Amino acid sequence: MHRLALVLAALCFSGQAFAQQATGLWLRENGASHVRIAPCGDALCGFVAWVKDPERASEIGLKVFYDMKPASPDTWEGQAFNPEDEKNYTGKMLLDGDILKTSGCVFGGLICRSVNWTRLK
Q1: Can you give the CATH number for the domain in which 68 is found?
Q2: Residue 90 CB neighbours (<10 A)
């Protein structure tokens, strides 16, 4: 019984550790925006934190990744919102060191678009 409690505790803490690795402020590869990844409920969400183009300032605070739950170590799956076309997609985040690759897909993953982000904080 004691071993079962230890295993369950390790699983709970490891899930939190995975989530914490992706949290923080990220710079889009083209330098056009920053997104902040943070816990929201039992998942991760991403919000636009900064945009280079003042005409897109209304996007600041917009939730662009949501319900991102751990799928495996360093990988989360959920939903993504693209402010450019105002559509929702099946989303995925893959963490590789200080690079976060995000993708949004349609048609069951047949068509996907990916963006790389570099950790700022």
Answers
A1: 2.40.128.520
A2: 16
How far apart, in Å, are the Cα atoms of 73 and each of 48, 52, 76, 94? 25, 32, 8, 9
- What pTM, to 2 d.p., does this model score? 0.80
pLDDT tens, position by position, 12-58: 434 444 445 899 999 999 999 999 999 999 999 999 999 999 999 99
Residue 12 tokens, joined: 């709970």
Into how many domains does the chain fold? 1
Please, which residues bridge with residue 31 across strands?
A: none
